[in-house]
Amino acid sequence: MHIDLKQCEHIQKEAALELARIASREALEQLRLKYFGRKEGALTAVLRSLKDLSEEEKKTIGRAAHETKLYLEDALAKKEQALIEAELHDQQRKEKIDVTAPGTRVLEGHLHPLTQLIAKACDIFTAMGFAVVEGPEAETERYNFDALNVPKDHPARDMQDTFWLEAPGMLLRTQTSSVQIRYMETHQPPFRIVAPGRVFRNEATDATHEAQFYQLEGLMVGKDVSLANAKAVLEVFFQRLLANKKIAVRFRPSYFPFTEPSVEVDVTCFKCFGKKCAVCKRTGWLEVAGAGMVHPTVLANVGIDAREWQGFAFGVGLDRIAMVRYGIDDIRLMYGGDMRFLKQF
Ligand code: FA5
Questions:
Q1: Is 287 in the pocket of ligand 1 (CB under 6 A)?
Q2: N or C, fewer C-beta in 10 Å, the chain?
Q3: What pLDDT band is residue 255 in, cutting at 50, 70 and 90?
């Protein structure tokens, strides 16, 4: 191979152009091999052929070749350093934490309005000495109807359209009154309990009727517990629940097979506070529960002597209370799972 000064010059120029275009350490390594590679390196070939030059040529061309070698080594090293710094800078930029940037809000859940209402109700009754108990949603006909003095062929069974289960004698409870029986079977009076829970009725749904809703059962049995006590307890409950001492309760005669006498419980409309509005149908009252004195036959069914013990029971419809309290105009919203609705409570 014959070399001359031009060749060295050419290598320097070409390498400088190529170096300017290089953007990665891998590409830089390729370039290093192109010039300094043991077998095929362009500059390696030049340096190798120096030994064939005359003494005169060695002085000029040899020096130029060595300068080119030094130049290239230096340029490669500088480029490598620049690439390392750029990489580092890039990494730092990516990993940088801006402590002043606004944070990402963590979505926080909260309790369903009905769950909030149940918790509040249980607190109020607990403060009045009531124990909170529960019963199953899939219930037997005996606990839901028979033991509650609802005769087999009595139309009262149709009052609450029942979802029957495939297992014989099993149903989805239509009322929390079934918990009264379960509790009284296993406890001796005196006692006071509340039992909140979900009930089911095979009804056409509309803005105020759902096929599933919540009730809160109350039961107080003692030696001389009367309907007046029921009125007082319910009045205190609603006054505390709605944080308003002016709330009153009134009883209207009614009929339930498991109570005698039986009453419908109305409470001062807590939308208009008695001023008469659309929610209370201009009556000033809201119908919120059924109640009465536990029927002697029901007590006998669970082995409690009705000559010695007596008491009241009530069943509050929780959904309608939640609706008036929170201004919800359609009961079905409560079970729709729509976040836009739920987020408001
Ligand atoms: C009963 O269920 C009786 N077990 C209540 C009772 C208990 C009376 C203890 C005496 C002694 P009633 O079917 O009226 O009664 O229902 C009670 C409350 O549940 C009603 O006042 C109403 O607020 C609510 N309710 C009834 N049906 C529905 C429905 N489809 N959707 C939403 N709430 C309902």
A1: yes
A2: N
A3: very high
Edge-to-edge, what's the strand order for the sheet holding 285-294?
Answer: 131-132, 191-200, 212-222, 310-317, 285-294, 259-268, 249-254
Report the distance separating Cα 51 and Cα 65, nearest Å. Answer: 12
- Reading the block at residue 99, the tokens are 């402590």
Mutate-to-test residue for ligand 1 from 148, 159, 175, 219, highest number of ligand atoms within 8 A of CB: 175
For residue 292 and ligand 1, the question of a CB distance below 6 A is answered with: yes
Read off the pLDDT of residues 89-143 as tens digits, 9 standing for 90 and up.
999 989 888 889 898 888 888 999 999 999 999 999 999 999 999 999 999 999 9
Average pLDDT over residues 145-165: 82
The whole-model pTM stands at: 0.73
